[in-house]
Design brief:
The complex is a heterodimer of chains A (213) and B (312).
Chain A (H helix, E strand, L loop, with lengths): L1 H16 L5 E15 L5 E4 L1 E13 L4 E5 L2 E11 L8 E20 L5 E19 L2 E3 L8 E14 L4 E11 L16 E15 L6
Antiparallel strand pairs in A: 1-3, 1-11, 2-5, 3-4, 3-5, 4-6, 5-6, 6-7, 7-8, 7-9, 9-10, 10-11
Chain B lengths: L1 H19 L10 E2 L2 E2 L14 E11 L2 E3 L2 E3 L2 E3 L2 E3 L2 E14 L2 E13 L3 H5 L2 E18 L3 E17 L1 H9 L8 E18 L4 E13 L6 E14 L1 H4 L3 E10 L2 H4 L6 E10 L5 E12 L8 E13 L1
Antiparallel strand pairs in B: 1-2, 3-8, 3-18, 4-7, 5-6, 8-9, 9-10, 10-11, 11-12, 12-13, 13-14, 14-15, 15-16, 16-17, 17-18
The chains are: A mainly beta (213), B mainly beta (312).
Chain lengths: 213, 312
């Protein structure tokens, strides 16, 4: 894993340095994620807020398109609310935190006024750690979670020029493509449980070569 | 999914306000060679624009004879009659560049009726979910517009299956349920086109290939859809602002065929108002076949849909 990441970084650096229209940047924000699909009996998935921080490398392909690689740390997961006999409402019972190293590969398409952009792409994520908590006390997780997750991302953003660097804010919708567990539900029925969420991110990016020179 | 789509729509509507101020007197409805194209409910328009669409429909099956379960000399949970549905579709598309737009949809279908046998008849009970994707223009000339789309679709179907419910009780399942909830996720790519012969006549066509989970658990499948709609706009020749469309499509997509294999053939007819530069109002009738596992013959669904689409 480490070796492949290093190779990716080296390749990326070579590509970016050789390209005059490239941007590098950092970003951070919140990740409102949850699982969707088959839930345990009498339970419902609800959103869990987490952090998302990372770096981005944008390689301009044409005047209005660029390819962005964004190695990042992403806290995902879900809350599980159970229907219990003593309460009319669902009870906030468990929270499952999944921490990923993710590598989104996104195409950014900029509007004609160069301020707004849309993005779409694929994110592959490697599960670094997981934790199941009930009332802030760690519990044993008796379900296996897949180490790799693949998801699609769609979003839109706004760039705010600040002279040489520029700020950006963006919103992304993430939809998992693979089931995050393959432990059978009942009678060999494989569950269909995928991650989904909304990311609200802000960051700063700078061109590798000063455009004024 | 619902919440996310709603938040995204609100955010993007804010952006629309800024973009919408660019060209106030421009014709915003999709036009090629002077022909105004109508919007169809079962396939996406090939045009890159900013629009908000809402469809509201009502459908009924042909007379179904579902045998139910034989206990001794009696059949229980049998059903003979029509099952009625309502369906709603909301779609927002945001143009980012002249060649690219992003869109979100939300769909909901539900069974209506108060008769117990109608409520317990096998088949779809409710279906909801959405789609998010991008549409890219491949080429545009005076007469032809050609686009491609890539999207992800996430649906949840609730299906009534009385036979499986009884089996679960016999098997001492601690949580037997007459309604089975099945989530299904799929990816799709498609080719969309529109061709205007002259200001009066035009044709729209589509072809999609998808891969993903079906509403039958344990299986992932490839799906295809394709078809066309031929249209005539009376306005250029008679000044009457009405357009008519007649089309045929074939589809194996889960949202059409539900939890069954095979293909559905859709025949549709549409009448739409073509007098506005900014919106379209239309009424579409669709007739299509659907196979229901518990009966031998295909059932038919008649659907009438009111469609309203605003262009920004």
């Amino acid at each position: 894993m480490k070796k492949s990441l290093l190779t990716i970084f080296l390749l990326l650096s070579v590509c970016l340095i050789g390209h005059s229209q490239s941007y590098v940047g950092v970003f951070g924000g919140i990740n409102n994620s949850k699982l969707s699909g088959d839930a345990p009996v009498d339970a419902k998935y609800k959103s869990l807020i987490g952090l998302n921080v990372g770096a981005q490398f944008d390689l301009k392909l044409t005047k209005s398109t660029s390819l962005s690689i964004q190695p990042s740390y992403s806290q995902e997961g879900t809350k599980l609310f159970y229907n219990v006999s003593y309460s009319k409402d669902l009870v906030d019972s468990l929270s499952l935190r999944l921490n990923y190293f993710s590598l989104p590969l996104l195409f950014k398409m900029t509007s004609t006024n160069q301020r707004f952009y849309a993005l779409a792409g694929v994110e592959t994520a490697y599960l670094m750690s997981k934790e199941l908590k009930s009332k802030d006390i760690s519990q044993d997780l008796d379900v296996s979670i897949m180490e790799m997750n693949v998801s699609l991302q769609f979003g839109a953003g706004l760039r705010i020029p600040l002279g040489y660097p520029r700020l950006f804010i963006e919103v992304r919708y993430t939809q998992g493509l693979v089931n995050i567990t393959d432990d059978p539900l009942k009678a060999n029925i494989l569950p269909r449980v995928k991650s989904s969420g909304i990311k609200a991110l802000a960051g700063i990016e700078i061109p590798l070569i000063n455009p004024n020179k | 999914m619902k919440k996310y789509i709603l938040i995204s729509i609100i955010l993007v509507l804010g952006l629309t306000k800024i973009w919408a101020q660019e060209n106030k007197n421009q014709i915003k409805v999709p036009v090629l060679n002077g022909h105004h194209f109508l919007t169809a409910s079962h396939f996406k328009s090939s045009f890159i624009n900013t629009s908000l669409q809402a469809n509201l429909g009502f459908g009924a099956t042909s007379v179904l004879d579902i045998p139910g379960i034989k206990v001794g000399d009696y059949h229980i949970f049998g059903f003979k009659g029509r099952i009625m549905f309502f369906n709603a579709h909301v779609e927002y598309q945001q143009r980012f560049t002249p060649w690219m737009a992003m869109y979100f949809t939300y769909d909901m279908t539900g069974r209506v009726g108060t008769d117990m046998s109608m409520i317990l008849a096998d088949g779809v009970n409710t279906m909801s979910g959405g789609e998010i994707g991008i549409i890219l223009r491949l080429m545009q000339s005076k007469k032809l517009n050609l686009s491609t789309k890539i999207n992800a679709q996430n649906l949840t179907g609730n299906f009534i299956n009385v036979l499986e419910y009884v089996e679960e009780i016999i098997d001492n399942n601690p949580n037997p349920s007459v309604i089975k909830k099945v989530p299904a996720m799929s990816l799709e790519v498609g080719l969309l086109g529109a061709y205007a012969f002259n200001p009066t006549y035009g044709i729209q066509f589509h072809g999609e290939v998808g891969y993903g989970e079906s509403f039958e658990r344990g299986s992932s499948d490839a799906y295809i859809s394709g078809g066309f709609s031929a249209e005539a706009d009376l306005r250029p020749s008679t000044e009457i602002p009405l357009g008519f469309g007649l089309g045929y499509s074939i589809s194996s997509a889960p949202e059409v065929v539900m939890n069954n294999d095979g293909y559905s053939n859709l025949i549709n007819a549409k009448v739409g108002y073509t007098g506005s530069k900014e919106f379209e109002l239309g009424l579409q009738y669709t007739l299509y076949n659907i196979h229901i596992n518990s009966i031998d013959d295909d059932g038919y669904i008649n659907n009438i849909m009111l469609m309203l689409k605003f262009y920004f």
